[in-house]
């Protein structure tokens, strides 16, 4: 239909063509019923066009449609009012006739509304969508009275609003950016009509320079708008939103998508708060507390104190709410701290360098000591020269001298440079020594305006020497008589003198001294010098004897002396009998003379024989010692054989002393020998050796020495003299020390068997219990032999062992003692044979090595067993081919301990990461142990954390090393006060220590403490219950806690009376947070899994092999090559930890994922993460292992981990989530880089 005047024929064909097109449709979208309806409608329209309309009905439009623009989903109505109500009216959409049927078949959302009788044919469209965007016209069919009519074409424009904004990084997340760096953000608005208008707001401010790209959408007439903007975040943007705003005419209000900016920026400079006005000025001994504060920074600053450039281990704390880090340095100032530079450094992970605030200490310190050189002891009226010298002080001190209460003038004063920037003061003094100054105090005093409240002095006491003034002796009157043995006391006294006079006693010009060693009884007792006031005394006590008779006793003190004399009455000092001959025979004459050597007064002499008085005659007198008198008398006798052995006695009697002294002479008469009934016929001797062995004594006896067992036997005694002969037989029994003749060494027995240790000895005499046994052990408790049976028969002893055990194995000593020294000792070893017992220590069950085919690893296997053990190795149950040059085994044996060292060269992750089994075998059995070869990893948590001491301000901790992951590990302590927000971190120094005292705690405060281990691969995490403790410090009035092993220190008590409603709210909130965490963790895990599956495309054949290889990260050290290598998997694993001082994060403009402690590695790894405890290393050739058998010693680490000597682990824990993103291989330390195996 081209117009109202167009011929009807073409119209019919046009209508039919449209209907056919509608029936055919685009493809086969319309179903058969719909096609039939449209075909029927076309035929109907064709018929209607041929019908005639009465010409009386006027034709025309009274209402025309208008152009409309509506939003998708709205309802629209296009007006069409016809003046001829009876006309056939239909609508056309982009030239497609919709038909006169008001329901418009095939278009369920279309229908015509209005009253046809009134000519109302309005097109009503519901829920408009993009397919409705077209041109529409209202057509009136031709009638007999008029041509067809067509309304002007109008456009219906459908606006499609954007549904969502796709923001990269992902909307709703928190991205970590570094302040000042440029990041690209894109925002995509898809499928909209017209194209969306996109703007960006950074912290509420519009972002300029937006690049916009509009492209075709998923359907015709739809557009996709992509806007990109370069964002340079600043520190003020931290925690703010970056918003993408999408605007469209189809939107009532713009749509938005945002991300939260976590902006990393350096902290502000550190500030040291100096107590007082004069910065740096301190006094020695002062307890100095210096707070250091660094504000700002994300993450908050890590603070490090330095003293003269050396780190000082001080804990620091962070307050994340105000982004403030604070650390307090506490030190006691010493003189050597003068000039020391105290620095506080502040830095975080994005600092270009450390910011430092330094203070140089100016230490004021007094002299630590004052010394007076020279002697203050001198004779009177002589000069002494003294020097007063101080230790170094700052500032210098002045010196002055005092004697008693008067000040002395020095002769010279000098100041010299001293230690620690101080000065030394010296003062010389010359002093005349006077007697009246003796005992006065001489003082050297140091003073200074800087030490007005302190006095420094050194004092000495003058010692002026002068002699005594008077000397005398107190005692018996001179010439008084005393009986010998009388105790006499003499006292020497002197007045005055300095030094104290040494009173010396003399006897006849010889110094009196006590005998050494003292005699019994002591005849001379010399007292000590005693002083009473100015009087000195020394006592001499004598027990008088003959030598003291008329002797002169003198006492001297310097040039003074005094003396006295004593008369002693004493009996004869010696009464001697002299004979004219020594050989007497019956009938010979014997002349005896009795001589009294000395006595006072003289004595009377008399003779008797066996109690019968003899007649005597006087002999000539002789001189007498000790100033006494001598006397002598003689007697004459005719002897016979019966007189042999009789005694002749001389007696000396003193009437004045009433005392008699006697002396006897035994008569020896020679006569023929006779054997008496008491003759000894059996002699016992002890064996000796060497030198002359016998002699005949003058009395006829045979003396033997150095007797040997060959001298044992019968001896014939033959006695002869000029008077006759006699004979007798004497038996000599020689006793000799035992010797061990036979001892079976070693003696062997199986476990549980019985055996006798036999010891055979040669000895005389042989005693029933002369055998004894000892076990030689270091532990005395193991020396008991109660469970063994001791037997002896004759010269053989036995130690019987029943049901032998391993404890009984060792060295035994057979001791034979028959009473003749020395006892015999023999050593025998008891060897208890037993099946192998492989040791299973935890540190030897896991070995780490780099699987890069360049490193080597050594597996240790140690076992006990007798007889010797043979070792075999298997890998994953398959015997190991030791002919392979990659495998080398060294075996060592020492006693019952055996070791096998298996060295694997060129370790390959694919071939050698396996379970190795070491089997030890001997003739009695076998045993085995398993050793796993794995790669390097993060360390395991420390073991056995416990509290060993507790005070109000500190807690002592102790733990054991866990598996170090194959790398040097360090330990860090994180703790918090439960009532105070924030955590504190302390590094354990030295790094390998297993004990540490955490200080700086507050009394009566609850704390929670964590212990972490870390190496270059990461830390051990906080999830293990064994690495955390809860403690409560005691109050100041409570005693400090003793060491204990309980993990929690808080004791259960009565539940506090908390309000019920807040408690229920708190519990509900915790449960809600727990559920959210679980759901978020699950979604996060799924997303990570999908990400991992799409990292690399590998062939089906190699996929599994790569998966297994990527499970490991290897590193191995060897002492021979000093080889360090690493393999890093491309699979996303746990983050690597690096010191923040050296680490610069490379942050891509993509979503930063949070660090996770358990991820893909746990799911895919072939072996449990904490199954093993230790890593073994190779440090040298087999000969360098030291004591392999009692204990396999592990040498110190032979390599140095790169970087600083000590990396502060506290910097690791303050890192934000963005630092843990996927890292390029070149961001690792050089030692950890390597090719993927």
UniProtKB/TrEMBL annotation:
<keyword id="KW-1003">Cell membrane</keyword>
<feature type="domain" description="Fibronectin type-III">
    <location>
        <begin position="941"/>
        <end position="1036"/>
    </location>
</feature>
<keyword id="KW-0517">Myogenesis</keyword>
<dbReference type="InterPro" id="IPR003961">
    <property type="entry name" value="FN3_dom"/>
</dbReference>
<keyword id="KW-0812">Transmembrane</keyword>
<dbReference type="GO" id="GO:0005911">
    <property type="term" value="C:cell-cell junction"/>
</dbReference>
<feature type="domain" description="Ig-like">
    <location>
        <begin position="54"/>
        <end position="155"/>
    </location>
</feature>
<comment type="similarity">
    <text>Belongs to the immunoglobulin superfamily.</text>
</comment>
<keyword id="KW-0393">Immunoglobulin domain</keyword>
<dbReference type="InterPro" id="IPR036179">
    <property type="entry name" value="Ig-like_dom_sf"/>
</dbReference>
<dbReference type="InterPro" id="IPR051275">
    <property type="entry name" value="Cell_adhesion_signaling"/>
</dbReference>
<dbReference type="GO" id="GO:0007517">
    <property type="term" value="P:muscle organ development"/>
</dbReference>
<keyword id="KW-0325">Glycoprotein</keyword>
<keyword id="KW-0732">Signal</keyword>
<keyword id="KW-0217">Developmental protein</keyword>
<dbReference type="InterPro" id="IPR013783">
    <property type="entry name" value="Ig-like_fold"/>
</dbReference>
<feature type="domain" description="Ig-like">
    <location>
        <begin position="738"/>
        <end position="819"/>
    </location>
</feature>
<feature type="domain" description="Ig-like">
    <location>
        <begin position="269"/>
        <end position="360"/>
    </location>
</feature>
<keyword id="KW-0472">Membrane</keyword>
<dbReference type="InterPro" id="IPR003598">
    <property type="entry name" value="Ig_sub2"/>
</dbReference>
<dbReference type="InterPro" id="IPR003599">
    <property type="entry name" value="Ig_sub"/>
</dbReference>
<feature type="domain" description="Ig-like">
    <location>
        <begin position="367"/>
        <end position="461"/>
    </location>
</feature>
<feature type="compositionally biased region" description="Basic and acidic residues">
    <location>
        <begin position="1099"/>
        <end position="1112"/>
    </location>
</feature>
<dbReference type="Pfam" id="PF07686">
    <property type="entry name" value="V-set"/>
</dbReference>
<feature type="compositionally biased region" description="Basic and acidic residues">
    <location>
        <begin position="1133"/>
        <end position="1144"/>
    </location>
</feature>
<dbReference type="InterPro" id="IPR013098">
    <property type="entry name" value="Ig_I-set"/>
</dbReference>
<dbReference type="InterPro" id="IPR013106">
    <property type="entry name" value="Ig_V-set"/>
</dbReference>
<dbReference type="InterPro" id="IPR036116">
    <property type="entry name" value="FN3_sf"/>
</dbReference>
<keyword id="KW-0677">Repeat</keyword>
<feature type="domain" description="Ig-like">
    <location>
        <begin position="836"/>
        <end position="937"/>
    </location>
</feature>
<protein>
    <recommendedName>
        <fullName>Nephrin</fullName>
    </recommendedName>
</protein>
<keyword id="KW-0597">Phosphoprotein</keyword>
<feature type="domain" description="Ig-like">
    <location>
        <begin position="467"/>
        <end position="567"/>
    </location>
</feature>
<feature type="domain" description="Ig-like">
    <location>
        <begin position="571"/>
        <end position="662"/>
    </location>
</feature>
<feature type="region of interest" description="Disordered">
    <location>
        <begin position="1032"/>
        <end position="1055"/>
    </location>
</feature>
<keyword id="KW-0130">Cell adhesion</keyword>
<comment type="function">
    <text>Seems to play a role in the development or function of the kidney glomerular filtration barrier. Regulates glomerular vascular permeability. May anchor the podocyte slit diaphragm to the actin cytoskeleton. Plays a role in skeletal muscle formation through regulation of myoblast fusion.</text>
</comment>
<keyword id="KW-1133">Transmembrane helix</keyword>
<dbReference type="InterPro" id="IPR013162">
    <property type="entry name" value="CD80_C2-set"/>
</dbReference>
<dbReference type="Pfam" id="PF07679">
    <property type="entry name" value="I-set"/>
</dbReference>
<keyword id="KW-1015">Disulfide bond</keyword>
<dbReference type="Pfam" id="PF08205">
    <property type="entry name" value="C2-set_2"/>
</dbReference>
